[in-house]
Amino acid sequence: MSTGTRPPHAAVLANVGRHIALTPEEQGLFTALLVPQHVARFGYVLRAGQPARTLAFVVRGCVRTFATDEQGREAGLAFAWEGWWCGDAASALAGRPATLTIQALEATDVLHLSLEHLEHLCQQVPKFERFFRLLFQNGFLLAQRRLQALLQWPAEERYRRFCRQYPRLSQRVAQKYLASYLGITPEFLSAVRKKQP
Amino acid sequence: MSTGTRPPHAAVLANVGRHIALTPEEQGLFTALLVPQHVARFGYVLRAGQPARTLAFVVRGCVRTFATDEQGREAGLAFAWEGWWCGDAASALAGRPATLTIQALEATDVLHLSLEHLEHLCQQVPKFERFFRLLFQNGFLLAQRRLQALLQWPAEERYRRFCRQYPRLSQRVAQKYLASYLGITPEFLSAVRKKQP
DNA sequence: CGTCTATTTGAATGTACTCAAAAGCGGTGG
DNA sequence: CCACCGCTTTTGAGTACATTCAAATAGACG
Lengths: 197, 197
Fold this sequence. Notes:
alpha+beta, four-stranded antiparallel beta sheet, 9 helices, 8 strands, 47% helix, DNA-binding
């Protein structure tokens, strides 16, 4: 008879388990390092200027990662929802304050893993090197596909492809955030949508 | 008294050595897996449609990696010169034919490491997991910075920043390839340059 | 020196942006 | 549960940034 409550780390263990097999002890080692955080809608998982020390796994909810330039313009870099990782890895690795902001678009629960803990973990359980290799490898591949999209397709095509690739997400987040991710203005996205419903 | 010829794998060992320390035996294991290739100017390290099985380290010369769309438009994704790695990792990992093309811009020497060998190597010498984690991590960070550039800066600004960041490279490669990398036409790059010499 | 390709130049065009205002929609409180 | 308020989306006019096409010039390499 189930209690009805899922073990709090089941989702992240499933995520890790997709790439490496862990013993129960290793699972314990790992989950002991995770720090849960609840973030209200429109709250922040990370703000530019604050110390960036962690990668965060989204257990529930949805966030967007963006960069803000001097004129206050926002460039949407990524979305992350249940089962995805987010973070300002560049700043965390360099030991510098965050340059990126991570904002919750819904009530969101995340698990933080600090980079110090990550390094420890990799030394104690070398399998984790592999996991994070695959994680960054995947992030790299996704970023490269997005580069290609920005370089060679017009806005309308980028929008259509995004909707095909992430149909759920395109319904889930407000259009202004989609526009920022696609590299266009909300007004122009609206015009694009009128043509392609 | 030196022979005047540098050991053929010195450059790649130095590159790996920046992140992990190898014993002489481990160095031997690694270099035994590398397959050298010489590519003439405007020859190809990899062509779209061919099997993509390797990552390649540039010992000498300079290459560009680009994607070609249905209309034949090229999107410059990366340059690689002495001391950098290149490859179509996405295709190689998926076991599918290359979608990217890697073209030599000068007479170039590369060392190929197949992904099968990479996996073997990681199992025999787990330190290599770490090396490739850091390699992909770095690639991810660079790709993310480029995304930000494309999303929030106009062409002129992207060009100026590129010249500041890679002054040598901006002299080394033809402008048409630079333009493709910056996401603009050669004609417009020419106009931008007239204003900012 | 001659050929071939890269770069420059200019005019016409198109794609996407800015600014302003109206319409729509959703979350919140009454 | 409904109505209101505020934010998001839509609409439209005017503009800017970047492209396309064509042709002239400059540079590189054999």
